[in-house]
Amino acid sequence: MTLDQLLMLTTVIDLGNVKAASQKLNKTQPAISRGLKQLETQLDISIIDRTGYRLKLTTEGKQIYSHAKRVLAETDILRQVTQHLSQGHESEIRLTVDGIFDISQLTPTLAQMQKIYPHTNFIIRQEYLSGAFDALLNDEVDIAISPRQGRASKNKTLNYVYLNDHALINVASPSLVARHPNLVSVNQIKAEYLIILQDSGSLTRDFEYGSLDGQKKWYVNDFNTKKTMIINDLGWGKLPKYLIEAELANNQLIAIKPDGNENYILINFYAITHKILGPVASHFWQLLQAQSNDIDNSVMNLAQ
Description:
Layout: H1 3-15, H2 18-25, H3 29-43, E1 48-49, E2 56-57, H4 59-86, E3 92-98, H5 107-116, E4 121-127, H6 131-137, E5 143-146, E6 159-172, H7 174-179, E7 194-197, E8 217-220, H8 223-231, E9 237-240, H9 245-249, E10 254-255, E11 264-273, H10 279-303
Helix pairs in contact: 1-2, 1-3, 1-4
């Protein structure tokens, strides 16, 4: 049994007769008839009912036809993947994204990549604080979406593409705010739990931003958990503004500004790499650069 025989079978059945199949496959009618006979002999079953003008499948033939279509489809995919890789296209691109960054701002670019390079897998993982940058320095990823970090690599030249800014703001539940009606200082809420996001990297060296001595603290490893805990009056802390706009609007969360804690932090985000990128990753990088140029042009137009 060969792929050529399976192709002859499916084409004959799809078109209804050997003559049409011979024209499509550019084979003689005797060659197709002979190929189908050989297939039946090799499988030791009757596949085609030849009693009428239009060839039909036998009961057994229907099963063979169904499997043949699937095998040919898988073969076509394999052929595409092989061609894709033979052109030097990467089988996968590893991307890490800081948890503060709004991933929806990347989805149009990712959709373009998905359409152009359907056989390159994107492996996207989320990290926190220095985690994305750390993963890049440790060669675990090809591109990181991260703030610039104070510590750079001694052995690597880093390339940056500015993407946008995201804000972190202090928030609390209405119940917590009601317990402190004259809240002016972070010292007034030391007895309330500060919900702290743990660094998934190693660059902060366990330094805790905005934490006072004696402050009650709980730790989480993602923003959605932190948000849920704050909404349910288990503490307070900073969250990305884009993540809580609905909750701020409906008063599930309230922005607080106690002295002694940086209440509003604007963070610049960049696409960062240090590698010589392959053709697919390079195209992705170029799209990010174009996105950055669009942002710069928008800012210039607003300033005029």
